[in-house]
Amino acid sequence: MLLALIGSSLAGWPDDVDLSALAYNDGVLVTDPATNTQVYDTVVSELGAAVANKPLMPADTLGINGFEVGLASTLAFTSSRDADFGDVTAWDRVTGDGESSRVMVVPWVMVRKGLPMSIDVGANMGWIGMSRQTVIGGYGRIAPLEGYDQAPDVAFQLGYSGYIGNNQLELGALDWSGTISYELPFGSLLGINSASFTPYAGAGMLITHAQPRFTAEEQATLGVRAVSGFKGSEAFDPSDTQWRSARIHGGFRIVSRGFHVRFGADWVPRVMPTLTAGLGFTY
Q: Which residue did the predictor score with more confidence, 149 or 264?
């Protein structure tokens, strides 16, 4: 059975997640899968944070006629030379050649549409660099407070993003958050030009679930398992809190004549931070 697992290992790109590779550790056959469970948990936690919808916008919405399209790129830092794993990192263990990238690069295409009542909906599609996996996500936002000169904008978001294209792992991340921002116009002709600088910050929660695509016997051999932060899931374990994590974020946007540049960062406890930069147009 173990030979079958090894044979099913992905002959893929350098950063494909290959859980079958957990059968060996630095060329030695693994007979005690306990360490593999720790490796698996680290990879799933960091992958969930990397693929989740990025809080890359202030709290204001587009309005009923607004439409936005943009490009962005995320740098998601992964566990590097961690004392828990020695010279071979958790990510090294789940790549076929044993040499993973220290930074996961995810280019995105993003669209957003304004709706009545200060509501936005949006969608993102990304590619995990040097792999055959993609990410598809969507979200809805509502701003109960926006557009007042003497008060900041406030918005709430709920979204979901899924990890697509891996035949050994199903994974998704649900995000909800609140964001506060304040637009600061600038330029030589205030009130005439449209340039502005908008800092923002917020917090929320990230809920991750993952399901290895192996039989129960194969999962036990490799030391992997289904995990979930969703209370209605059979895999939910209230004592395993890492799949329901707080999340904080912040960044800024610069806009001039409909063209925008954005930079954002977000962080989940026990997981390395992610940085995202983007640009685009608002119509």
A: 264
Instruction: Decide if 124 contacts 136 (C-beta within 8 A).
Output: yes
- What residues contact residue 106 under an 8 Å CB cut-off, 6+ apart? 50, 51, 73, 74, 76, 126, 127, 128, 129, 135
CA-to-CA dists, residue 230 to 41, 130, 175, angstroms:
16, 30, 12
| Mean pLDDT taken over the chain | 90
Chain segment 163-222, per-residue pLDDT in tens: 999 999 999 999 999 999 999 988 655 555 668 999 999 999 999 999 999 999 999 999
Q: Which letter does DSSP use for residue 53 in this model? A: P
Quickly list DSSP for 132-180. Answer: S-EEEEEEEEEEEE---TTS-EEEEEEEEEEEES-SSEEEEEEEEEEEE
Determine the Cα–Cα distance for residues 68 and 115; give it in Å rounded to an integer. Answer: 12
CATH number of 33-78+106-282: 2.40.160.20
- Amino acid present at 15: D
Kindly state the DSSP code that residue 20 receives in the 8-state scheme. G
Q: How far is CA 207 from CA 3, 43, 66, 86, 263, in A?
A: 34, 15, 30, 29, 23
Stretch among 58-67, 81-90, 208-217, 269-278 having the lowest mean pLDDT: 81-90
pLDDT digits (tens, 9 = 90+) for 204-217: 999 999 999 999 99
Nearest one of 226, 229, 248 to 174, comparing CA atoms = 229
Going from N- to C-terminal start, the domains of the chain cover: 33-78+106-282
Strand partners of residue 196:
185, 255
What residues pair up with 107 in beta bridges, in sequence order?
Answer: 73
